[in-house]
Amino acid sequence: MSTQHRYARPTDELQWNIPGSFETVFKWEYANGRDALTKLYEKGKAQQWNTNVRIDWSQDLDPENPQELPDESITIFGSDVWNKLTAREKAAVRRHVQSWQLSQFLHGEQGALVCTAKIVQQVPSVDAKFYAATQVMDEARHVETYSRLLHEKFELAYPITPTLKKLLEDVLSDSRWDLTYLGMQVLIEGLALAAFASIRDQAKNSLAAAVNAYVMQDEARHVAFGRLALRDYYPQLTQKERDEREEFAVEACYVMRDRFLAEEVWETLGLPVEECVRYVDSSEELRNFRSRLFTRIVPTIKDIGLWGPKIRRAYANMGILGFADVDAEALSREDERVAHEFDQRARQ
Fold it and tell me: What kind of architecture, by CATH, is found in domain 36-45+65-347?
């Protein structure tokens, strides 16, 4: 049955075709696996899970605050617009804001599914093809999981935002395999991890928290995959080629930073869009949230060798240069630990 009726905004486009051309690479050398990537592949195989088994889908959501998040997480919280809303109207804002955010998670996960399938075809080494194949399965599971959360529990969804759509189009239409890694594995996945963490750590609803905890366990491996592959490859490029990658990364980071204004939500709810956007754009809460989004991205960008003056200057202007020294591997280990804690609580 079609889920088109669950979209909060009219959407005639239920299919998106991106034209593109790239080489598919076959490799006849099967025994040249890099140790770190081989270990990650083993980990990817061992940590496969079934969303219908691992997650308790019998849990219900509160219609007035589905994920039971604090109101401070709503970007117009504290504004004149918010303060004038009735209790019923605030409940509608909570439901729509949360659905809008989860919808972008869902669309981004389908983007990751398609990007990783492209990596399997394009990447020149067999060890990377092996690991990417496990990620294809991960991303299919994530699409299934967020789709179920939205369509069965929220019964409300939003179309993909223009900014996320443009970024995915840029990543998928570029013929260079490393740009798919950089755009998806490092930038989009890195930002997603920070956004997922905000729900995992704040949601009082155990279903919503568990969904994000389990997805994060997978995503931490995906960012590590991009880091391992590009750290070996980028030193081989010319300075001009590295400059092109840095410029792409800078532009993508600015786009991702500015994609949380949620104009679609305010318009759908009949709120004054310009007033909401002005408040959101100047909000200290959003400024802090935007900064936290780059916790995983900045140290990875530095680690893979895209650390020229242009990217450092851009990150300084964005107020995120300080994340360069974050221990990304320690964050990944913590993501795994938290996921195991959720498993232990579920068994009690």
Answer: Up-down Bundle (1.20)
